[in-house]
Inverse folding.
């Protein structure tokens, strides 16, 4: 008999454990009394509401002034005065082992997600399995803990029953530009006794002002807010307004950022493509600009062409190939790493080596792609004819073609580099080295009376594979450098 009794007791425990495990794994089906959801908002002593931040997966806080999705919980009846609380994202309210933290992050119900609901006058208290109580610290305004051993004002809550959370809920959408934000929303399923809508604005999620953005309810289902600052993220919710001046539940929350657009322009520069843009109307919180480049319209890379935002309002893009049409757009970059409105798109064909340089004997100027520049900046040196050949200081000409010139004082040597060409000349010497091969020029470089290094133009340009036109009548030289 003793063995039989012992066996009966053991089996009772086993069955109890099986039943408990089934409750843990299948909380909805096991605990659901009926198909109707018991939706509540939980009000603290100082009139604020409990909130599952971001709908769940975070801490339970007690600092919200209005009831919205994040402030609404499904109260699941577990029987015999015990409940579980489910957040908007389907996760359960859970107390840490030490009771110091309360989260909305559990996908199942066990002892840390079970509360005994105790009536305290017209309010309730939530008792945890370890015999402590939920508490809205300071009566509300901060986080919720579960380590209080006695029931006081901060441990009592008012349950606000919400029969149907979606009965008068609107779906809010927003479209922003550089001047304002336009909101539109859907009408609730039942518009009876509704006289309009209140739109609420704030600068933090879930922290909208209790004063709507308009003095009177908005009668239509759209509104444009012009009272905004650029570079600030705003958060909005909407509520219906009834004839008795009561309000419906909060809509979904939308966030908007008013971002001023810029105007982008481009032009060919000597050593690349120059990009230029205007500053937005409001530059508050702008730390720089991102430029985006592509080789097809509307197909810019999503990676900017610089590693860091450009602080000024211009940039020379030198990392390009020749005879390619590039398409550029620009966005402002804000302190919070968000981006401004997309600028207009500009298209420009690169022209790195297709230089057109015109020089004239006796003139200190040359014309590069239509722009007049000095041949020898700051010195006034002119192109001259000596021994039937034209001579001039060559540096500015070569640099206008995209090349470089080096001077070796000790050897009296000039080295010219352009693309895959290298020419070396010595003052007073007719021997020239072109790409490692020795050649003879019919004239030698010389130093002018003013101390300037004068080099033969024809020999150099022709050995750089340039096309040169000589006009003996006007004494003009046109250099064309093609690909």
């Amino acid at each position: 008999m003793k063995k039989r009794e012992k066996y009966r007791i053991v089996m009772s425990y086993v069955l109890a454990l099986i039943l408990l495990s089934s409750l843990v794994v299948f909380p909805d089906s096991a605990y659901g009394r009926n198909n109707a959801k018991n939706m509540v908002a939980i009000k603290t002593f100082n009139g604020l509401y409990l909130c599952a931040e971001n709908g769940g997966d975070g801490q339970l806080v007690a600092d919200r002034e209005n009831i919205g999705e994040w402030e609404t919980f499904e109260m699941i009846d577990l029987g015999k005065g015990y409940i579980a609380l489910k957040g908007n994202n389907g996760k359960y309210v859970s107390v840490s082992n030490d009771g110091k933290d309360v989260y909305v992050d559990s996908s199942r119900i066990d002892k840390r997600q079970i509360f005994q609901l105790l009536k305290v006058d017209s309010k309730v208290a939530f008792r945890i399995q370890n015999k402590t109580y939920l508490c809205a610290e300071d009566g509300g305004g901060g986080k919720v803990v579960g380590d209080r051993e006695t029931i006081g004002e901060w441990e009592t809550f008012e349950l606000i029953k919400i029969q149907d959370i979606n009965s008068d809920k609107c779906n809010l959408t927003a479209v922003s530009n550089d001047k304002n934000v336009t909101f539109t929303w859907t009408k609730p399923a039942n518009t009876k006794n509704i006289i309009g809508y209140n739109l609420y604005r704030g600068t933090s999620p879930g922290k909208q002002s209790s004063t709507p953005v308009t003095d009177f309810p908005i009668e239509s289902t759209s509104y444009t807010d012009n009272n905004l600052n650029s570079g600030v993220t705003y958060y909005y919710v909407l509520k219906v307004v009834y004839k008795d001046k009561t309000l419906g539940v909060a809509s979904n929350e939308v966030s908007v950022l008013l971002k001023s657009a810029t105007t982008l322009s481009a032009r060919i520069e000597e050593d690349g493509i120059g990009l230029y843009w205007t500053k937005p109307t409001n530059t508050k919180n702008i730390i720089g600009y991102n430029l985006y480049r592509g080789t097809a319209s509307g197909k810019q890379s999503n990676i900017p062409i610089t590693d860091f935002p450009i602080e000024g309002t211009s940039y020379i893009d030198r990392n390009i190939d020749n005879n390619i049409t590039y398409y550029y757009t620009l966005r402002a970059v804000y302190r919070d790493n968000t981006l401004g409105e997309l600028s207009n798109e500009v298209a420009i064909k690169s022209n790195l080596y297709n230089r057109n340089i015109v020089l004239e004997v006796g003139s200190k100027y040359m014309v590069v792609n239509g722009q007049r520049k000095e041949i020898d900046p700051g010195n006034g040196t002119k192109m001259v004819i000596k021994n039937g050949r034209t001579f001039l200081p060559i540096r500015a000409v070569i640099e206008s073609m995209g090349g470089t010139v080096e001077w070796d004082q000790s050897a009296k040597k000039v080295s010219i580099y352009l693309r895959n060409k290298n020419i070396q000349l010595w003052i007073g010497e007719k021997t020239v080295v072109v790409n490692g091969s020795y050649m003879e020029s019919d004239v030698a470089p010389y130093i002018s009376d003013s101390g300037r290094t004068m080099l033969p133009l024809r020999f150099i340009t022709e050995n750089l594979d340039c096309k040169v036109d000589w006009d003996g009548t006007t004494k003009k030289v046109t250099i064309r450098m093609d690909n």
The longest helix spans residues 2-25. Confidence is low (pLDDT under 50) at residues 13-36. Helices lie at 2-25, 27-31, 395-400, 457-463.
